[in-house]
Amino acid sequence: MLQKGTIIGAATLIAAITIATTASAAFAGGAPGSRKAAAPSSGQQLNGTWKTAVQLSDAPPGVAPTFIALDTFLPGGGLLVSSSADNPGLRSLAHGTWTRTGNRQFSSTFTWFRFDPTGKFVGTQRVRRTMNVSAGLKAFHSTDVIEIVSPAGAVVATIHGTEDGVVLDG
């Protein structure tokens, strides 16, 4: 038989989840004042998974200047990115956001954790990009700025690049 405290605790947990879900939905839906205003959507979204080819214009020594990545753009502005760059065990999955900034123009920012070969946390890497999407909304070209960030939060290096992406169908 359930005790009174257990029932009250469960009811409190359910209420907290409901409030958090409602608040998240309101934020994702653009509640007034909750986010930077985006350009009218006119149906232009990035939702789905895209394959990108990355070209670094000033790759540091020992870093491949080209690689591919998978970007998953989530409804509401979330973003997950994985990469084929060398040593995948030295970095986490990237998390970030995307927003529409104009007609077929978007921006996105994402960050992942960096680790040394022993698994020790050595900082983050942040990518900021400006994306121009094709008329059919199935391809994009972007200009990227990549910042290598120390564990203390200081930018210790900046790399530049471009990306060409295409939406994956199924």
Tell me what you see in this structure.
The protein contains one helix and eight strands. Helix content is 15%, strand content 47%. Mean pLDDT is 80; it is low at 1-41. With 170 residues, it is mainly beta. The protein has an eight-stranded antiparallel beta barrel.
TL;DR?
The chain has one helix at 4-28, and strands at 48-56, 66-73, 78-83, 94-102, 105-115, 121-133, 139-149, 155-167. The chain has 170 residues and is mostly beta strands. A hairpin with a 4-residue loop joins strand 2 and strand 3 (78-83).
Q: How large is the count of helical segments?
A: 1
What strand order characterises the main sheet? Answer: 1-2-3-4-5-6-7-8
Mean pLDDT: 80
Taken in chain order, the helices and strands follow as HEEEEEEEE
Helix content: 10-25%
In whole angstroms, how far apart are the ends?
Answer: 49 Å
The major sheet is characterized as: 8 strands, antiparallel, barrel
**Strand count:** 8
Q: Based on Cα principal axes, name the global outline.
A: globular
Structural class: mainly beta
Radius of gyration: 20 Å
Unreliable residue stretches: 1-41
Strand content: over 45%
